[in-house]
């Protein structure tokens, strides 16, 4: 699946460093194209809330058996 930069920019509309975030995620997508992103609401201990980017996937780790 192709990386959707414009869709991500729309999701990150309120982010302070939106363009930098999109660029970094595009770079990650080159090596890990199966990663998925979404927006979720995070609730802090003081009950305040913030919409944050959730980026999920598995990074393969090579090790000797």
TrEMBL record:
PROSITE patterns, alphabetized: UEV
GO annotation terms (biological process): protein transport
Cited Pfam families: UEV (PF05743)
InterPro entries linked: ESCRT-I_UEV_domain, UBQ-conjugating_enzyme/RWD, UEV_N
Domain of life from the UniProt record: Eukaryota
SUPFAM superfamilies xrefs: UBC-like
PANTHER family registered for this protein in UniProt: TUMOR SUSCEPTIBILITY GENE 101 PROTEIN-RELATED, UBIQUITIN-CONJUGATING ENZYME E2 VARIANT 3
Record protein name field: UEV and lactate/malate dehyrogenase domains
Species classification: Eukaryota, Metazoa, Chordata, Craniata, Vertebrata
């Amino acid at each position: 699946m192709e990386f959707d930069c414009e869709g991500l920019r729309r999701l990150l509309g309120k982010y302070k460093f939106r363009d930098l975030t999109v660029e970094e995620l595009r770079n990650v997508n080159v090596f890990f194209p199966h990663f998925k992103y979404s927006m979720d609401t995070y609730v802090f201990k003081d009950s305040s809330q913030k919409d944050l980017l959730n980026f999920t996937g598995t990074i393969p780790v090579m090790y000797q058996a």
